[in-house]
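Input structure tokens:
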């Protein structure tokens, strides 16, 4: 393999290999070969499509994981600062039953047989509904 040609005072050389045909650079010690560096900022723009795809897959996975059921047990998210009594009253008014509070004060678990519960709870102050697991799971040992 050919020796790198020294450049200016930095002592870094660049040469063309005959094996791969790629331009490689050596470090100050002259040992080992590294790929030549791309221009500054080139990595950011090149990674943008991959980052967009990764974000879309993450959002799709989270949406599928926390999608609420049409009926049954679900978590109802209220505005921050909503107390448990107001959440309980809203769930009853929307046609559901209060199951239990969650670890987060503005989320309550409800049970319903109505398929239109998600729309009805929004009319009574609920922001949206989620599947009742993870952070939205009922607190263990809580009795409504």
């Amino acid at each position: 393999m050919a020796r790198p040609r020294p450049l200016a005072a930095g002592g870094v050389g660049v040469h063309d290999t005959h094996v791969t045909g790629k331009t490689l650079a050596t470090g100050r010690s002259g040992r080992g070969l590294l790929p030549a560096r791309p221009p500054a900022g080139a990595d950011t723009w090149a990674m943008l499509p991959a980052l967009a795809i990764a974000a879309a897959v993450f959002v799709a996975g989270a949406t599928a994981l926390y999608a609420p059921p049409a009926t049954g047990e679900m978590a109802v998210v209220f505005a921050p600062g909503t107390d448990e009594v107001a959440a309980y009253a809203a769930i009853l008014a929307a046609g559901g039953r209060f199951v239990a509070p969650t670890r987060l004060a503005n989320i309550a678990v409800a049970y319903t047989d109505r398929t239109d519960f998600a729309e009805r709870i929004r009319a009574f102050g609920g922001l949206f509904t989620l599947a009742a697991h993870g952070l939205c799971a009922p607190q263990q040992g809580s009795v409504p």
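The longest strand covers residues 72-78. The first helix runs from residue 42 to 65.
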